[in-house]
Specification:
The structure holds two protein chains of two kinds. By secondary structure, chain A is α/β, with parallel strands linked by helices. Chain A is built from five helices and five strands, in the order βαβαββαβαα. Chain A has a single domain, classed as HybD-like (Rossmann fold). By secondary structure, chain B is α+β, with helices and mostly antiparallel strands. Chain B has one domain: Cytochrome-c3 Hydrogenase, chain B. Chain B is about 40% helix and about 20% strand. Chain B is built from 13 helices and 14 strands. In chain B, the strands form five sheets. Chain B has a four-stranded antiparallel beta sheet with strand order 3-2-1-14, covered by helices on one side. Classes of the chains: A alpha/beta, B alpha+beta. At the A-B interface, helix 2 and helix 3 of A face helix 4, helix 5 and helix 6 of B.
Chain lengths: ~160, ~450
């Protein structure tokens, strides 16, 4: 199998900033489970880096924390292959106001977005440097890993 | 067009996108005269200078690098040089060259981000880089390629591209091999062409007439375009050792900013950044960079802050050239750093961050613990200049409708690529025009 055919899972976030660690922790959890059929990587979410990671990938999953809209620990799944993230999840929290949403839309504009692109967004409330993950978000790591395993076993365009 | 008979007009930009950190802008216009301009910085104070106290001298580069995700190398360089100054150590040879190389990487990634993603949309009438990319995908593809090589340099030398972890007082934890750098060289050769195109692209943008009589302040080195060394000079007679920084420059607090403003004692506001570096060091650029600047009509002196976008492009080209030169001449050092023993002393460091001079001063005790720290970032130094520019610029465009005036003001602020986290992501513009309030982001909006 060539690399471009391997699914890439990107854990976006900062492992030292409370609930922002959910992406990196998910990558750790997949490694712990020994899942070898996909590639995994951690990312701070810088757009040019994310777009470089998308290069020649057929399927990409991004796992990121978002500021709680309803309740911490709630998991949202968005198929962004054809349309942008909903506005309430597209807030520019990253450096210079450019983050995951901007990376996805820039990639779409320059025809560099993988044909299948899925975002898992986990609502968090604690993003301070040095803070621990809240129990609500911590508990989503195993759930996310289970859902990814289910996703990988079926076509990635399943309903949200 | 506004009714010239109205009395007061207020324009408020609550949050302006495409700048780093959190700030806003209030402009008051009375009887068609700009009566007040305030660049509000409401990013919470971060107290770095306070919590550096009591930490070991060797911790300063890693702690201060966390001040900014865009220019961490600048913080590592200024703090390392300050500590080495305090301990009487000079880093030379390949280690010095590697420091210049990693700084090239930071300039390339930071300037490219600003030129294409943050500032170019203003000139071309797009709300953001995504809209620009929809109409000009090839331009944005090349921009991303150029930025990528900057990221690669920082990753190879710094261990990772954001908040690098391989730089330390005295040098590096691990020096790269020749092979590590040869791989970068191939991408840099391609980047040189994109950088040249970037200079041509920026020079073709439409610019307002806005030449200004600033006092430009930058480092000047006897032989090199400046990164970490040299005297602090200006076009109006300043020529000092960096240890005299506080003798000539003072910081002061203004009510509307959580970031201290800086001014030249007895003279006032001054300008730091690419325009200052370029105007004071054109003769230190490579012949190819000088020729390219001349080719696009920039010349050795540029007085229009809006043309700083061209200057940044020239600096990207130069940084790519310089990176290639360093890699071609690189000899692996015998040791990755100079070990040093703690001793009491005071040290000064000043380096040219992408946005301008970044000054650090530390006092350490005989156990090597930091007793006092002073950090003066470039955006702090430029705040007064931004307000001064806006007073003149708004007056020049005073008849524009508020929404058009807002866009012009945002463009003018972005001339400085302000990093408010260092000293602010969004800026809110509020204009009070003869008592009529305009707010780009009314309360309750997102």
């Amino acid at each position: 199998m060539s690399q471009s055919e391997r699914t890439l899972i990107i854990g976006v976030g900062n492992a030292d900033c409370g609930d922002d660690a959910v992406g990196p922790k998910l990558i750790d959890e997949l490694a712990r489970r020994g899942i070898e059929t996909v590639d995994t990587v951690r990312s701070a979410g810088e757009p040019s880096q994310l777009i470089a990671l998308f290069d020649r990938r057929a399927t990409v999953y991004l796992i990121d924390a978002v500021e709680a809209i309803q309740s911490p620990g709630r998991i949202h799944r968005f198929d962004v292959s054809e349309r942008a993230l909903p506005a309430e999840f597209a807030q520019p929290y990253s450096t210079h106001g450019m983050g995951v949403h901007e990376a996805l839309e820039l990639a779409r504009a320059i025809d560099s977005l993988p044909p299948i692109a899925i975002v898992y967004a986990v609502e968090g409330v604690q993003f301070e440097p040095g803070a621990a993950m809240t129990p609500e978000v911590q508990s989503t790591v195993a759930v996310l890993a289970d859902r990814l395993v289910e996703d990988l076993a079926m076509p990635a365009t399943s309903p949200e | 067009m506004m009714d010239k008979k109205s009395e007061r007009r207020t324009i408020k930009v609550n949050y302006m996108a495409r700048v780093e950190g959190e700030g806003g802008l209030d402009i008051k216009i009375d009887d068609n005269r700009v009566s007040d301009v305030k660049l509000h910085i409401f990013e919470p104070p971060r107290f770095y200078e306070a919590f550096l106290r009591g930490r070991r001298f060797g911790e300063a580069p890693d702690i201060t690098a966390r001040i900014c995700g865009i220019c961490p190398v600048a913080y590592q360089m200024s703090s390392s040089h300050a500590m080495e100054d305090a301990l009487g150590v000079k880093v030379g040879g390949p280690l010095r060259e590697l420091r210049r190389l990693v700084y090239c990487g930071e300039w390339i990634e930071s300037h490219t981000l600003h030129v294409y993603m943050l500032h170019a949309p203003d000139f071309l009438g797009y709300p953001d880089a995504i809209a620009l990319a929809k109409d000009h995908p090839e331009v944005v593809k090349k921009a991303l390629e150029l930025k990528k090589i900057g990221n690669q340099i920082v990753t190879v030398l710094g261990g990772r591209e954001i908040h690098p972890i391989n730089l330390k007082v005295g040098g590096f934890y691990r020096a790269p091999t020749k092979k590590d750098l040869r791989e970068l060289a191939e991408n840099l050769k391609r980047a040189l062409d994109i950088a040249r195109e970037t200079v041509h692209f920026t020079s073709g943008l439409p610019f307002p007439d806005f030449d200004q009589d600033y006092e430009y302040v930058a480092l000047r080195h006897p032989d090199e375009y400046p990164f970490c060394e040299g005297r602090l000079v200006s076009n109006k007679g300043l020529d000092i050792d960096i240890s005299q920084f506080s003798d000539f420059i003072e910081e002061h607090h203004v009510e509307h900013s959580t970031s201290l403003h800086a001014r030249m004692k007895g003279r006032g506001d001054y300008h730091v950044g690419p325009l200052a570096r370029y105007n004071l060091n054109f003769d230190r650029l490579s012949p190819e960079s000088q020729a390219l600047a001349n080719e696009v009509g920039l010349g050795p002196v540029c007085l229009n802050p809006f043309k700083s976008i061209i200057v940044r492009a020239v600096e990207i080209f130069w940084a790519v050239e310089e990176a290639l030169r360093i890699i071609e001449n690189y000899e692996e050092p015998d040791q990755s750093c100079i070990e040093m023993t703690a001793a009491a002393g005071t040290g000064h460091g000043c380096s040219e961050a992408p946005r301008g001079i970044l000054y650090h001063r530390y006092k350490i005790d005989d156990e090597g613990l930091i007793r006092d720290a002073v950090i003066v970032p470039p955006t702090s130094q430029n705040q007064g200049m931004i307000e001064s520019d806006l007073r003149k610029f708004v007056q020049q465009y005073i008849d524009l409708p508020n929404d058009e005036l807002q866009l012009k003001c945002e463009q003018a602020v972005r001339n400085y690529d302000p990093c408010i986290s260092c000293s602010c992501h969004f800026l809110r513009l509020r204009i009070d025009r003869d008592g009529v309030q305009y707010d780009s982001r009314p309360e309750g909006s997102t």
